[in-house]
UniProtKB/TrEMBL annotation:
Species this chain originates from: Jannaschia seosinensis
Name the UniProt record assigns to this protein: Biotin carboxyl carrier protein of acetyl-CoA carboxylase
Region span, Disordered: 52-96
Function: This protein is a component of the acetyl coenzyme A carboxylase complex; first, biotin carboxylase catalyzes the carboxylation of the carrier protein and then the transcarboxylase transfers the carboxyl group to form malonyl-CoA.
Biased segments, Low complexity type: 76-86
Molecular function terms, GO-annotated: acetyl-CoA carboxylase activity
Length: 162
């Protein structure tokens, strides 16, 4: 740890708060103070699964199941989870998403635009590197699921193409 112990502790606490507020699982930062003085911090939290039941589970003999009356299927209803949509373009990394090449510029794509395979649809910044995210296939942009400047996790849905 650097010679700036108190400010480092405050910095680490701020990173932990940022992690919690944005529901991130991990954050890594390097902070240089001078030629021979730096601070490398990795803050991570373990995502907790639902707790296991504390009482033993009672298992009874299987009962015959009455078939339910068939329900009519909704005609191609959109899925509740955008990540499960077959047209979802997901984030290949953890970072910050940007919808335009620079502040104040027109966005790469808007809802209703038709894109071709390989066309840049947005940028994900990770470790101060701007990574252009290309359309995996051609199609029409039906939804943009992220806001400009928002943090994203690996695998988070960004855009829906049809």
């Amino acid at each position: 740890m650097s010679k700036n112990h108190e400010s480092d502790v405050a910095f680490i606490k701020a990173l932990a708060e940022l992690l919690r507020e944005n529901d991130l699982s991990e954050l890594e930062v390097s902070r240089a103070y001078g030629e021979d003085d730096s601070l490398d911090v990795r803050v991570a939290r373990q995502m907790v699964a639902a707790p296991a039941p504390s009482a033993p589970i009672q298992v009874s003999a299987p009962q015959p199941v009455q078939p339910a009356a068939p329900t009519p299927a909704a005609p191609s209803a959109p899925t509740d989870d955008p990540a499960q949509d077959p047209g979802a373009v997901t984030s290949p990394m953890v970072g910050t998403v940007y919808l335009s090449p620079e502040p104040g510029a027109a966005p790469f794509v808007q809802v209703g635009d038709t894109v071709s395979e390989g066309q840049t649809i947005l940028i994900v910044e990770a470790m101060k590197t701007m990574n252009q995210i290309p359309a995996p296939r051609g199609g029409k942009v039906t939804r943009i699921l992220v806001e400009d400047g928002a943090p994203v996790e690996y695998g988070a849905p960004l855009v829906i193409l049809s």
